[in-house]
Amino acid sequence: MKTTRTLFILFTFILSFTVSSLAQDSLNVRRLGSINYWDDAQSTAVVDTLAYVATRASGLRIVNISNPAAPVEVGFYDTPLAANGVAVSGNYAYVADDWMGLRVVNITNPSSPIEVGFYDTPGTANGVAVQGNYAFVADFDFGLRVVNITNPSSPFEAGFYDTPGNAYGVAVAGNYAYVADGYGGLQVVNIANPSSPVSAGFYDTPGFARGVAVSGDYAYVADDWMGLRAVNITNPSSPVSAGFYDTPGSAEGVAVVGNYAYVADYGSGLRVVNITNPAAPTEVGFCDTPGSARGVAVSGNNAYVADMEGGLRVVNTTNPPAPIEVGFYRPPGAAFGVAVNGNYAYVANGYSGLRVVNITSPSAPVEAGFYDTPGYAKSVAVSGNYAYVAAWNNRGLRVVNLTNTSRRVEERYYVTPGTD
C-alpha cells in the first residue's frame, strides 16, 4: 500500500508539474509573482498579518501577508529535518519536524526566529496543536503525545495515548483531542488529565483520516480519497457520521470558519464547502492551486494554503463561491505545515526547518527569518515567544526562541526513547 501510494504521489507530482506548465489555474485566480526556493509547503497557520508555513526540507517560513497580492518572506527557521506541521500560540511557533520531533521557536522577532527548545518524540511528528500549557503532537505510529510546554526551553512529555492507527493530524477542543488517525479514522481522546489521556470514543471513517478541524458539535475530517466527513461529536464517547462531501481530489487538510469548511484537496486545490447543514455539505467554490494543497489556515478574508511545491498561496474568500488567489510566496523547500500569529506566518519547511514570513501585506509576503532545525520539520505551533516544532528522524520536539526575528536560537529540545 505504501509503495502504491508513493508511486501515485510521484505520478501526481509529475503530472501536476506538466499540466501547470501548460495551463492557467482556475479562471478566478490571478498570479502576481513568485520566488521559487521553498521545499514543499505542507501546513500553514495565520495570525494577523503573518503566515507561518511548514515547508519540509526548508523548515519554518514566516511570510508577511499584509498585502495579499505581494506576500513577502520576513524570516525563517531551518528546522533540523523536515517541517510537516505548525501551530502558533502567543510568541511561539510549534513545529512538527518529522523524525526530529517537536521544535519550539521563539517568534517575538519574526525576522529572526530562534529555537529555544525541543522534544524528540518517539515517532514521526506530523501535526501539532496547542492548548494552554500543552502541545499535542500527532506522532504517526506512536499516536498522540502530550508535551508540557510551561517552560518552552525545557519541554517534556506529560503523557501519551497510543492510537490504533497512524496519527497524522490533531485538533483540540475543551477536554478532548481529536486525532486524524489514518486507517484508524477519527479518535477522540479525553485529555482532562494530560498525564493520563484515555480513549473516549472513535468513528471509523471510510477513507484515510489525514486532517481534522472542530467547530461546535462537529468534527470535520479530511479523509483522503473519501473527501470531507462531518462527524457529530455531541457525545464524544459515541461520535456518529452526520454527512459528507466527496471532494474531487484527496482531502489532506481542513479549516473551518463560520458556515464554511476550507479543504486542502491535494491536486484539486482549495475547495470551499458550505456546512450550514452538516448533514448535506455542499461545495460552493474552489481555487485550483498550482501545486499540491496539503494544509490550510484561514484568517480574516483570506485562506492561506500550504501548497507543497506551489509554496504558500493567498486566496481571498470574501465571496466564498468565487475565491480568488491574490498573492503567493514560493520560497525554498516544500511547505508542510503553517501557523499564523499576528503579522507572521510560521512554516514547517521540511529539511529547511522553520521559516518566518511577514504577511503584513498578504499580497506581498516576505521572509523575515528562519531557524534550521536538526530534523525534518513537519508541523509547528506557536505560543508566546516560542515556536514548537515537531521533527522527524528522531529529533523530537524543538523549542525555538522567536524574540529576535533576525536571529533564531534553539533553547531546548527533548528526545524520546523511540526509534525512527
Protein architecture, described:
5% of the residues lie in helices and 48% in strands. The N terminus and C terminus are likely disordered. It is mainly beta and 420 residues long. It is built from 1 helix and 38 strands.
Task: Write a concise synopsis of the structure shown.
This protein is mainly β and 420 residues long.
The CATH class is identified as Mainly Beta
Number of strands: 38
| CATH architectural category | 7 Propeller
Q: How much beta, percentage-wise?
A: over 45%
Number of helices: 1
Measured between the Cα atoms of the first and last residue, the distance is: 20 Å
Outline, from the CA principal axes? globular
Largest sheet: 8 strands, mixed
The fourth-level CATH homologous superfamily is YVTN repeat-like/Quinoprotein amine dehydrogenase
* Number of domain units: 1
Radius of gyration: 18 Å
Mean pLDDT score: 84
pLDDT < 50 stretches: 1-36, 413-420
For this entry, what is the oligomeric state of its chains? single chain
Structural class: mainly beta
The name CATH uses for the topology is Methylamine Dehydrogenase, Chain H
What would the keywords be for this entry?
single chain, 420 residues, mainly beta, Methylamine Dehydrogenase, Chain H, eight-stranded mixed beta sheet, globular, disordered N terminus, disordered C terminus
